[in-house]
Amino acid sequence: MAKPGTGAAAEPDAGAPAIEVRDLHKSFGTLEVLAGVDFTVARGEVVCVIGPSGSGKSTLLRCVNRLEEPTSGTVLVAGAEVTDPDVDIDKVRRGIGMVFQSFNLFPHLTALQNLTLPQRRVLGRDKAEATRVARERLARVGLTDKESSYPAQLSGGQQQRVAIARALAMDPQLMLFDEPTSALDPELVGDVLAVMRSLADEGMTMLVVTHEMSFAKEVADRVVFMDGGVIVEEGSPAHVIGAPSHARTRSFLSRLLDPAAARIGPSGD
Ligand SMILES: Nc1ncnc2c1ncn2[C@@H]1O[C@H](COP(=O)(O)OP(=O)(O)OP(=O)(O)O)[C@@H](O)[C@H]1O
Ligand SMILES: [Mg+2]
């Protein structure tokens, strides 16, 4: 098997961590958004990334499946070097489910069709198999009765659960979530978090950018706090959220707990 870092297009390695990021840098023009990030996500681990707006959380997530080209550094997914120019990036991406704040469902397709289309196009599944998998995944997110609904006929929370089911239909080894509940009305957040919690309980490897501290506290194996393009601290939720070591983490958490203070804060977020 090709060793990571040799420049060869590495095959997924069953023993390798789910994600390994080494000295990752990303600049947009003169703006350095990631200033040397190192971290590892083990298989089956749930890691929540928290931090202020603009700290580089989404950019980090997008570098994992190379939706963003890193300026330098190495990203390995299941041992395959994503940052290798010769890697089969489509193959790597097939193993990674991604759920964004905006659901990006096809408006002209039903919930069921939103799940079957990528399976047929990308995985080459036949209609019967794609439909079987789609129904199973819709059941898993509690939307069996909505398979014939179009996105406009679903609530935001239901649409997000369809988006999660769509990602799950591709049998990913790893799920990336970028603030999956932040566009939702408060009363719809719980159902989406419940689905994510059940995925975590089933052993799915998850990297989750979130502002939901109670979710991070209960579900994360590890919490990573980012600020200014670096990881300021990481550790158990009890440590990072419950008893943070760094002043920057404490200040972020107190602004999060006191939205009024955040609104009048200098950064305006
Ligand atoms: N394509 C781009 N071109 C130029 N600048 C960008 C681009 N994408 C992101 N940035 C900048 O990079 C910085 C980090 O953005 P990023 O989206 O990673 O932050 P974030 O931590 O996810 O913030 P939020 O909590 O608001 O989602 C921001 O200053 C942003 O304006
Ligand atoms: Mg973001």
From TrEMBL:
GO cellular component terms listed in the entry, alphabetical order: plasma membrane
Could you list this entry's UniProt keywords, alphabetically sorted: Amino-acid transport, ATP-binding, Cell membrane, Membrane, Nucleotide-binding, Transport
Name of a matching Pfam family: ABC_tran
List the membrane topology term(s).
Peripheral membrane protein
InterPro entries, per the entry: AAA+_ATPase, ABC_ATPase_HisP-typ, ABC_transporter-like_ATP-bd, ABC_transporter-like_CS, MetN_ABC_transporter-like, P-loop_NTPase
As its record notes, the protein acts as a catalyst of: a polar amino acid(out) + ATP + H2O = a polar amino acid(in) + ADP + phosphate + H(+)
Family matches, as CDD domains: ABC_HisP_GlnQ
Molecular function in Gene Ontology: ATP binding; ATP hydrolysis activity; ATPase-coupled polar amino acid-transporter activity
Where's it found, cell-wise?
A: Cell membrane
Q: Which residues form the ABC transporter domain?
A: 19-253
Name the principal localization, coarsely classed. Answer: membrane
- Determine if Cytoplasm is one of this entry's keywords: no
Give the Enzyme Commission number: 7.4.2.1
SUPFAM superfamilies xrefs? P-loop containing nucleoside triphosphate hydrolases
Q: Write the signal peptide boundaries.
A: none
The family database entries (PANTHER family) matched by this protein are listed as: AMINO ACID IMPORT ATP-BINDING PROTEIN (PTHR43166), GLUTAMATE_ASPARTATE IMPORT ATP-BINDING PROTEIN GLTL (PTHR43166:SF9)
What is stated as this protein's family in its record? Belongs to the ABC transporter superfamily.
- Name of the protein this chain belongs to: ABC-type polar-amino-acid transporter
